[in-house]
Specification:
The chain is mostly helical. The chain has helices spanning 6-36, 49-79; strands at 43-44, 47-48. It has one domain.
């Protein structure tokens, strides 16, 4: 049986915490903001906010979530000595 070290446990816990936070943000952007977007009547960059969220806003947030996750995981990999070798 493989023994898991404390460093591996900390790495996994940080990974799970990061994933949970980012999934919560994804859920809010996808379902909560999308559901209430019609009642948010104000202009955002010259367009109604509901239209902007539906057509572009959510996609921008999704790309930001992916970029943040990749950056954070690269940092976490380096902290725990499991980063991929750079050629």
């Amino acid at each position: 049986m493989v023994q898991i070290t404390d460093s591996q446990k900390k790495y996994w816990q940080k990974n799970l915490n990061l994933t949970a936070v980012l999934l919560a943000i994804w859920f809010v952007v996808t379902f909560v903001v999308g559901y209430f977007a019609r009642s948010l009547n104000f202009n955002f960059f010259g367009w109604p906010f509901s239209f902007w969220v539906g057509s572009q806003g959510a996609l921008v947030i999704y790309v930001a979530i992916i970029a943040y996750y990749a950056h954070s995981m690269n940092k976490l990999d380096q902290e725990h000595g499991v980063a991929e070798a750079q050629e």
